Amino acid sequence: MGLFRRGGNVRDTDEVTGAAAVTPADDAVAPVEPAGDDAATADDAVTGDEADVAGTTPPRPAPGGPWDVSEVDGLGRRVDLGAIWLPGVPGMELRMEIDKSSNQVTGVGVSLAGSALQVQAFAAPRTDGIWDEIRGEIAESVTKQGGAVDEVPGPFGRELLARLPVRTPEGRTGHRPARFIGHDGPRWFLRGVLTGAAAVDPAQATTLETLFADIVVVRGTEARAPRDLLALRLPGQMRPPAPAPAAAPAAPDFDPLTRGPEITEIR
């Protein structure tokens, strides 16, 4: 049995909608965690079946990952989180972020050895990727908030190196480094945010980059509007039935650098 705990802080932020929303955390060491506007904390500890995330660090896959579910031979040693199958790394801490207003799991966070990776999956058009467009929106948002951003080549193509403005515990304005990485798949887009040591030290980023490269995205066949957040679930939960066709939903609101409600599995 694994121990899950709920916790987190709520911060008021300027609303920035869409898959590129960026809001700095109130302190320089808060982990990367998204939250909805109506997010609230929960202090109760709950137990649940422990997902199998043990095993050796997965080797770097051949060029092309992250993967679509049609490209792999089953779950393997990954954890089934709904739209994301997440590889396990020994010693990692797995966080599932929940939007209180919809009771929807909105993101996955992995912490390991002083670094963190936040991952979210979105629907995308059938023909065109959206990472090029989202990079521009992220850069604009960071700049407007007083930060700085550079677009550079990386292991997954073009990525952003950002210095996000934050307020230190002493009340001063500081900057927090972050790397925004992305991958356009067939009708989906996977976005990752690296913080901590992995944002500035390539050697420290290797394990989390390898994890990101071996993620599998389960898009589903239902019609979705571009940038619609793909549904996630807690480890061990049953996959919900496919929803009935409905009007295209609005793009979700989330703040990728704001701490929110969470359920954490500690390894």
Mind sketching the topology for me?
Layout lengths: L1 E6 L37 E4 L18 E2 L10 E2 L3 E3 L6 E7 L4 E9 L2 E9 L7 H14 L3 E7 L2 E11 L5 E13 L2 E9 L5 H12 L2 E2 L44 E5 L1
Protein name: DUF3710 domain-containing protein
Assign a percent range to the helix content. under 10%
CATH level 3 topology: Protein Transport Mog1p, Chain A
What count of domains describes the coordinates? 1
As residue ranges, the low-confidence spans are: 1-62, 256-263
Helical stretch count? 2
- Placed side by side, the strands forming the largest sheet appear as 2-1-14-6-7-8-12-11-10-9
Beginning-to-end CA distance, first to last residue: 11 Å
The CATH architecture category equals 3-Layer(aba) Sandwich
Biggest pleated-sheet summary: 10 strands, antiparallel
CATH class: Alpha Beta
Shape: globular
- What structural category characterises the helix and strand content? mainly beta
Mean pLDDT: 75
- SSE topology string: EEEEEEEEHEEEEHEE
Tell me the number of strands: 14
Strand content: 25-35%
What is the multimeric organization of the chains shown? Answer: single chain
Based on CA atoms alone, the radius of gyration comes out at 17 Å
Pfam families: DUF3710
Biased composition (Low complexity): 16-45
Region (Disordered): 1-70, 240-267
Protein name: DUF3710 domain-containing protein
